[in-house]
């Protein structure tokens, strides 16, 4: 079984972060291991608290899994601060972690800050050049480029400028745009590939970004090209959004088990 590593924060509500990543990896048939960077007190209503793991212990976790497991891909999510990003970069280089997918998590859906402002430069200058693909949404793309969130920029311009930061591929997620469609744009420095789906009318999208990046890493580990990995991952996430989980009273998570048979529906009573 191919092995994939997630380096991210823990979501106590189970819908995003490490929990979403491991659910996605399991669902897609790879073995997921984890390095936890932060603990969040979190539910469908928002983030009530954050405790960051020391960079020393992040390093220890990375050493522990990397000397034993043979990873075919890795992803990062919430990295919290400059010290953790620097620690992750050092271990990515030391262990030559392949197919690194960086989801530049900065702000939760609820608006809660998940990355220290001073760490954005470290993410941009140290981590992104080590990556196979970065997967920012519109707001994250603008922050990485130093643009005002209110600025109107085409996905193509964002992708071209982001690619100059050093990743092999850029996937700009346009789900925050208005309209009846959700358009994401993949760019490799030469060609654009767009992924368009009908927008799902729901607010239950908690964990979407984590799930997509974990799915991309999983599909890369399974040997798919970047374009095919993104295509398959987008299809998986779209179905997961359509069949979201009603588990809380706020913005509920996507359904990572969407393709599994619901035993209750098929039981004899």
Which topology does CATH recognise? UDP-N-acetylmuramoyl-L-alanine:D-glutamate ligase
Overall structural class, as computed from helix and strand content, comes to alpha/beta
Oligomer: single chain
**Beta-strand content bin:** 15-25%
CATH class: Alpha Beta
Mean of all residue-level pLDDT scores: 91
Residue share in helices?
25-40%
Largest beta-sheet characterization: 9 strands, mixed
Second rung of CATH, namely the architecture: 3-Layer(aba) Sandwich
Task: Summarize the helix and strand pattern as letters.
Answer: EHEEHEHEHEHHEEEHH
CATH superfamily: Ribokinase
What strand line-up does the widest sheet have? Answer: 3-2-1-4-5-6-7-8-9
Q: What would you note in describing this structure?
A:
- There is one protein chain.
- With 269 residues, the chain is an alpha/beta fold.
- The protein has a single domain, classed as UDP-N-acetylmuramoyl-L-alanine:D-glutamate ligase.
- The chain has 8 helices and 9 strands.
- Strands 3-2-1-4-5-6-7-8-9 form a 9-stranded mixed β-sheet, sandwiched between helices.
- A hairpin with a 7-residue loop joins strand 7 and strand 8.
- Helix 5 crosses helix 6.
- The radius of gyration is 17 Å and the shape is globular.
